[in-house]
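Inverse folding, one chain.
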């Protein structure tokens, strides 16, 4: 495992500031990442030069906007090795992508007796939409358990074998747990689901900007992610879906842009992806997301993955020396992706985050939208440090020193 050049920091204007009189140490990348200059410039350039609505205009600016929007879609397909850019639906982010599949595919396909299988490590975004659609359709929601602390909170694969029956119509799981730092073996999980005829949906919110992802090699049916967690802007995300599935699904929302014809009492839909993009889409942010794809591929996702994993391993080693710490997920020396969440008996996560902020350190504290998992683990909350391309070993030393000071205060 190796680290990226610290000079990458200079690509990110927001990092060049002090908080509480100290240089900013931004370790809240699991919530959202900072944006490189190229993404900020792409956004500004669109509004300064090309701003127009897409698909419905014949003038120069509208054509430029349409070309930019569709080029972003093609680039999004390439980023995850989708076979066809028609398999890319632009959404507001992971949450909307999952809701789209739950409401559209779910309402058309789920019946009483069917099972939707998810896991105990899901973010609420990949949990609540399945509660809703199973309740609406009479289908049943089941969970693959997270194994105990000895098993470092990985998925219980024996339980998964038993749960995967032919009644399971869809298995939806997170690629990278936002609380545990566990990177699930997506290809293996998809193969297991396929063996019983179940479709698969991957929540790639935490992995998309950090790990190489090839949807054809993984063999998933749907994959959801948010642009803002991969150096792109907020308000834009992607639902990848296999073309035959998307073309078979009813619209999620209706209105302009998604119809082929409208009569007084009847309308016909366009094929995917337009069928799922009712109304004026988020053109500017899609175009800025294109710049984020280019930026990350310019570094190389294997290199980013190595960097994040190396920092997380260093953080685990440094933090494990702190008195009374409980670190969730894989233990020191075991593979873990670029985030570490931890708890102390002596201090609540919100206090830790507030005090760390005074040292210029941005962390996240709380239930991380994993309330049922937190309950199972017997924790009200954890503190999470999450890493990205611009973070350095020196910042981990700053974090460890700050936490040591805070713990002394609460002792
Ligand atoms: N899934 C996971 C694993 C996440 O970490 C998050 C956000 O933190 C989401 C889904 C939801 O992403 P968004 O709020 O961008 O829709």
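Residues assigned per position:
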């Amino acid at each position: 495992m190796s680290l990226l050049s610290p000079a990458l920091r200079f690509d990110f204007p927001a990092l060049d500031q002090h908080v509480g009189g100290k240089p900013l140490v931004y370790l809240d990348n699991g919530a959202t990442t900072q944006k490189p200059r190229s993404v900020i410039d792409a956004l500004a350039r669109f509004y300064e030069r090309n701003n127009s609505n897409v698909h419905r205009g014949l003038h120069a600016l509208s054509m430029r906007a349409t070309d930019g929007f569709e080029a972003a879609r093609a680039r999004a397909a390439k980023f995850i090795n989708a076979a066809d850019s028609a398999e890319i639906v632009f959404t507001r982010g992971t949450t909307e992508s999952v809701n789209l599949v739950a409401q559209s595919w779910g309402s058309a396909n789920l019946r009483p007796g069917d099972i939707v299988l998810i896991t105990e490590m899901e973010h609420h975004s990949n949990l609540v939409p399945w509660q809703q659609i199973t309740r609406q359709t009479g289908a049943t929601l089941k969970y693959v358990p997270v194994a105990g602390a000895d098993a470092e909170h990985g998925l219980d694969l024996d339980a998964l074998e038993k749960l995967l029956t032919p009644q399971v119509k869809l298995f939806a799981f997170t690629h990278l747990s936002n609380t545990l730092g566990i990177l699930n073996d997506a290809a293996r999980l998809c193969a297991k689901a396929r063996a019983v005829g179940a479709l698969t949906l991957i929540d790639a919110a935490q992995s998309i900007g950090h790990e190489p992802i090839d949807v054809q090699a993984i063999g998933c049916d749907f994959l959801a992610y948010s642009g803002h967690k991969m150096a792109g802007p907020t308000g834009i995300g992607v639902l990848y879906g296999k073309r035959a599935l998307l073309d078979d699904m009813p619209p999620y929302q209706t209105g302009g842009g998604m119809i082929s014809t409208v009569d007084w009492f009847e309308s016909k839909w366009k094929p995917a992806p337009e069928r799922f993009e009712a109304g004026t889409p988020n053109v500017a942010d899609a175009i800025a997301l294109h710049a984020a794809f280019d930026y990350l591929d310019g570094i190389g996702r294997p290199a980013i993955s190595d960097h994040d994993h190396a920092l997380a391993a260093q953080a685990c080693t440094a933090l494990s020396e702190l008195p009374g710490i409980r670190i969730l997920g894989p233990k020191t020396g075991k593979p873990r992706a670029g985030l570490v969440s931890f708890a102390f008996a002596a201090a609540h996560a919100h206090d830790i985050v507030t005090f760390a902020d005074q040292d210029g350190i941005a962390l996240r504290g709380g239930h991380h939208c994993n309330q049922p998992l937190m309950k199972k683990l017997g924790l009200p909350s954890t503190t999470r440090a999450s890493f990205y391309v611009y973070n350095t070993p020196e910042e981990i030393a700053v974090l460890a020193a700050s936490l040591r000071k805070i713990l002394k205060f609460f002792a």
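The mean pLDDT is 96. DSSP finds 13 helices and 17 strands in the chain.
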